[in-house]
Amino acid sequence: MNQRNAFPRWLFYAGAAILLLLLQSLVLNRLRIWGVHPFLPPMMVAVAASWEDRQESLWAAAVFGVICDLTLHPPIPCFYTVLFTAAAFLSGLIAAHWIASVFFCAAVTSLVALLLDGAFHILILTYRGVSDLGAAALILGRELLLTLPLLPLVYFLFRPIHRRFPAD
Amino acid sequence: MKRFFTKNGILLLTAVTIVAVVLCVVSALGSGSGFLSNAAGVIASPFRSAGAAVSGWVQGIGDHFQSIEDLQKENEALRRENARLQESIRQAEADSEENARLRNVLNLRRQRRDLTLESAHITEQSISNWASTLTLSKGTSSGISIGNCVVDEYGSVVGIITDAGLNWSTVSTLLDVESRLGATVLRTDETAIASGDLRLMSKGRLRLNYIQGGLLNGDLIVTSGLGGYYPSGLVIGTVEEVLTDDSGMGQYAILAPNTRIDALAQVFVITGFDIVE
Lengths: 168, 277
Prior knowledge:
The complex is a heterodimer of chains A (168) and B (277).
Chain A lengths: L2 H24 L14 H11 L2 H18 L7 H19 L4 H26 L5 H15 L3 H14 L4
Chain B lengths: L1 H28 L5 H30 L3 H39 L5 E14 L7 E4 L12 E3 L5 E8 L4 E5 L6 E6 L5 E5 L2 H4 L4 E6 L8 E4 L11 E10 L6 E7 L8 E11 L1
Antiparallel strand pairs in B: 1-2, 1-12, 2-5, 3-4, 3-12, 4-5, 6-7, 6-9, 7-8, 8-11, 9-10, 10-11
């Protein structure tokens, strides 16, 4: 592992993440189709974790989660920290053991991360007494339909960073 | 190496989960905003304000290109409504004078509504599809506290403050699945509960539950003020449709809120009120 590259690599990822978060808040939040808008953050974590060093990805996901938790008003404390760490963990496992194709792997891990996000939300809503699973599934389905087509945007923004600062 | 990673990965995931559970418990036991959350909110405030400024600029450009035909239609509708309101005001003035005379005769206290308002800008709309929240540019240093009611410039309810830091606060809007407000049907004085609904949230609508019947489309729904938590008479919305619930025994109504939550830039927090009915 090339430790020398680790700092600039994650610094560039942070810059790219800020760009995507700006896009999320300035454009995508207003792009409501079927009353739902695309939600990029879980996809950002999944794409980076699908090709980067797994241990680094986990820590980066946890730090990104902490920042999101402190600024985005999560439904419960540490929501995004747990979600993103779990998403990075699963993405690392999928990339290492099951899928070889890089783009397809990024697509599958993004799908898993978004499903995990939806599952976490449904769990919290169920705990709080909102038990309309049909409505929750509808929101999750629409979110997936709107977010997954944006995978190339995240993929092609992150890929040059991965290539410029390789881990191995 | 793989075993090492797997072990460490699970360890980190477990540690994060334990910290999350502990923070959930601490947050549930405590009240108000935690120190970390408060500090992060204070630090993030200038960035949110900058983001809101850029966002407002982008929206302004979009609004500039709004169809002239749409604006003409809206103008025509507003003219008609204005004429109707002028007539209502004339009648209301006469009624007010009569009311004042009768109150004098009966020696009743004069009706009044004193609301203490704190204006605030919206620095962030909720980023998640699972909740409907707004972040405001003011917090506890401006007298805002959890449970305060938030209204728009026309006095229509926007939501309730659910979290407050030093210079920021979070509003759960009317549409949020966890919002609940005591409501009154203005025409019949019937009381009900207006609450957010997961199925309706994405459509920008909310539910009116526990209604007895006799509700008509277009009925105006206002806050009941029962319990004294929120002022009475603030407009929540209008009845769009009356439906029978799944059990077939009761009815509920779908409300269209009076305020356009996604188009708001500034709101007013009611930090205190004194109402004599």
